[in-house]
Design brief:
The complex is a heterodimer of chains A (346) and B (137). Chain A has 346 residues and is of the alpha+beta class. Chain A contains nine helices and 17 strands. By secondary structure, chain B is α+β, with helices and mostly antiparallel strands. A four-stranded antiparallel beta sheet of chain B has the order 2-1-7-6. In chain B, strands 3-4-5 form a three-stranded antiparallel beta sheet. In chain B, 39% of the residues are buried. Chain B has two domains: 35 residues; 77 residues, Sandwich (mini-chromosome maintenance (MCM) complex, domain 2), CATH 2.60.320.10. The chains are: A alpha+beta (346), B alpha+beta (137).
Chain lengths: 346, 137
C-alpha cells in the first residue's frame, strides 16, 4: 500500500512544514512601580532584545522624572508650584500638563491630577500600598477645601506657575499609559511593526500576531482569571482601571486607589472600567474618570473625553457597555454576565 | 462461507503489509507530537515561567503538582502547581492581591506580586499555543 505510505508521509511533512515562524520575543520586568511586559514579533531576537533594553532605560527615566513625591523632575515642580511665582519647567512635563489639563476639563474634573495631596493623604502614591486606617474626615475635608484644579497651573512659554498653593501634580492615572505610548513610538522608530507593551496592565499594541489579531484578556474584577477578551490589530490601546489594583481592607470595607475628587473617598458602584482608544495615555485617564462617573454618568463623560469603546463592570457583576465595545468583546466566563448595552449620546 | 468470499478475505488481509503498519504507527505518534510542538491545538497552558525580579526563577511544568518558594525582597512567595493550574498560595506582601488572583491555567495568563517582585505567566506550547497575548488589568 505504497499510496497510503505516501499520503501519510505527506501529512507529516505538511504539518511539520507549516509550523514555522519563531514565537514572539517576550520579556517582563518590574518598572514604574508595577509589572511591565514587552512582546515583539517579526524581527531577530537580538534586535528585539536591544529595543527592550532601550525601553527599560526609558521607563527608568520616566519613573524618576514623573514620580510625584520622589526627588526628580515632577517632585521639584511640585515644590516650586507650592511656592507660587513663575519658574522654568522641564520640557518633558509641559506637554503632559497641557494634555492632562484638557482631559481634566473634558472629564468635568473627575480626572484631576492636581489632587496629589489627596492621593498622598490616603497613601496610594507610595510604592508600598497602605494598610489603613483611612484618613479622617477632617483631613479629607481640609485637602478638598483647597480646591486644586489643573486649570490653576498656568503655562507661560517654558515657564510654569500655580495660582493655587494646594496644587500637587500626580500623574499616576495617566503616566503608565503615557509610558506605554512612548515605548511604542520608540519601537516604531526602530522599524518594529508587531508589538505589545503592557505597563501595569495598560496595553498598547501595534500590528498583529502572525496572521491573526493580538488577543488581550481583561482581568475579572472579582472572580479568578479573565472576564473577557478583545482582538486587537493596527495601532490602539486597551486600558482597564479597577478597584482590585491597589486597595486595603479596613474593618471589612475595601478602600481602593481611585479617589472621587468630589468626596475625597474611593469611588463606589463600579469595580472596573475598560476603554479602547488610540492612545494609552488618554485611555488611562478616561478609565479613571469613568470609574468615578459610575453607571449613570459614564456615557456623557466618555463622549466629552472622545472615548468611543467602554465597558464597566458594576458592583453587582453586571456589565455595562456601548455597542462599539460589545462588538469586540468575547466573554471568557461561563455563564456570561448580564449585559446592559447603552450607547454613548452624540 | 463461499469460495469467492474466502478469496476476498485473503485479499483484504494482504491490503496492509508490515511496512504499512509501521508507517501508520509512526503517524499516530508523530502527528500529535507535531501538533503539540507547534501549538496548533489547545489553549490550555502546559508550562509556566516564574520570574523573580527581571530574572527567570524557573520554567515549571503544569503537569507536575508541586510547590515552589520564590525569594523576593520581602521574603518567599509560595506558588503552587496543581492539576494543570498555577497560583500564588502565600505571599509576604501586604495587599495579597497576587493570592486573591486565584488560579491561572490558560496560555498567556499572568499574575504578579509587585511588592515582592515575583510574577508568573502561563505558557502554551509553541507559537500558536498562547491563548492570550497579554493581560489587561
Amino acid at each position: 500500500m505504497r499510496s497510503l505510505a505516501i499520503l501519510l508521509g505527506a501529512c507529516v511533512a505538511f504539518v511539520s512544514g507549516c509550523s514555522s515562524p519563531p514565537p514572539p520575543f517576550k520579556h517582563s520586568t518590574f518598572a514604574m512601580g508595577s509589572t511591565v511586559e514587552f512582546t515583539i514579533e517579526g524581527i531577530p531576537e537580538a534586535d528585539a532584545r536591544a529595543a527592550v533594553d532601550e525601553a527599560i532605560e526609558d521607563l527608568a527615566y520616566l519613573d524618576a522624572a514623573l514620580h510625584a513625591w520622589h526627588p526628580g523632575t515632577l517632585g521639584r515642580i511640585n515644590s516650586l508650584l507650592a511656592l507660587g511665582g513663575k519658574f522654568t519647567s522641564s520640557p518633558l512635563v509641559l506637554p503632559l500638563i497641557e494634555q492632562t489639563t484638557q482631559l481634566s476639563e473634558q472629564s468635568g474634573g473627575l480626572f484631576n491630577p492636581a489632587l496629589g495631596e489627596l492621593f498622598a493623604l490616603w497613601g496610594f502614591e507610595s510604592d508600598d500600598p497602605p494598610m489603613g486606617p483611612p484618613p479622617s474626615d477632617a483631613d479629607i475635608a481640609r485637602v478638598l477645601a483647597g480646591k486644586p484644579q489643573m486649570s490653576d497651573v498656568r503655562i507661560h512659554g517654558i515657564e510654569l506657575e500655580s495660582v493655587n498653593p494646594h496644587v500637587k501634580l500626580d500623574f499616576g492615572a495617566y503616566g503608565q499609559g503615557y509610558a506605554a505610548d512612548r515605548i511604542i513610538e520608540r519601537f516604531k522608530q526602530r522599524g518594529i511593526k508587531n508589538a505589545i507593551v503592557n505597563v501595569s496592565g495598560d496595553v498598547r499594541i501595534i500590528g498583529q500576531h502572525e496572521d491573526r489579531p493580538w488577543r488581550i484578556g481583561i482581568r475579572n474584577p472579582r472572580g479568578e482569571g479573565v472576564i473577557a477578551s478583545v482582538l486587537m490589530r493596527g495601532d490602539e490601546s486597551l486600558v482597564t482601571s479597577g478597584d482590585y489594583e491597589r486597595y486595603f481592607l479596613y474593618q471589612g470595607k475595601r478602600y481602593h486607589h481611585i479617589l472621587d475628587p468630589r468626596t475625597g473617598y474611593p469611588s463606589r458602584g463600579v469595580t472596573s472600567v475598560t476603554v479602547i482608544h488610540p492612545t494609552a495615555a488618554v485611555a488611562d485617564a478616561a478609565a479613571t474618570a469613568l470609574m468615578i462617573a459610575g453607571v449613570n454618568d459614564w456615557q456623557e463623560v466618555a463622549r466629552r473625553m472622545g472615548v468611543k469603546s467602554v465597558m464597566l463592570v458594576d458592583d453587582q457583576g453586571r456589565v455595562h457597555m456601548n455597542s462599539s465595545m460589545a462588538a469586540r468583546v468575547k466573554f471568557e466566563i461561563d455563564p456570561a454576565p448580564q449585559v446592559v448595552i447603552v450607547d454613548t449620546p452624540g | 462461507m463461499s469460495h469467492v468470499d474466502e478469496n476476498s478475505a485473503q485479499k483484504k488481509g494482504a491490503l496492509l503489509k508490515r511496512g504499512d503498519y509501521l508507517v501508520l504507527l509512526a503517524c499516530v505518534i508523530a502527528i500529535p507530537l507535531l501538533f503539540s510542538r507547534y501549538g496548533v491545538v489547545g489553549s490550555e497552558g502546559t508550562q509556566a515561567r516564574i520570574n523573580a525580579g527581571a530574572r527567570e526563577f524557573a520554567l515549571v511544568s503544569l503537569q507536575k503538582n508541586q510547590t515552589y518558594h520564590v525569594p523576593g525582597p520581602l521574603g518567599d512567595s509560595e506558588i503552587e502547581v496543581r492539576d494543570g493550574r498555577i497560583r500564588f498560595v502565600r505571599s509576604p506582601c501586604a495587599g495579597q492581591q497576587c493570592v486573591h488572583s486565584g488560579w491561572a491555567h490558560r496560555g498567556g495568563e499572568f499574575i504578579a506580586c509587585v511588592p515582592n517582585r515575583v510574577s508568573l505567566v502561563v505558557l502554551g506550547q509553541g507559537a500558536g499555543g498562547t491563548y492570550y497575548d497579554s493581560i489587561n488589568f
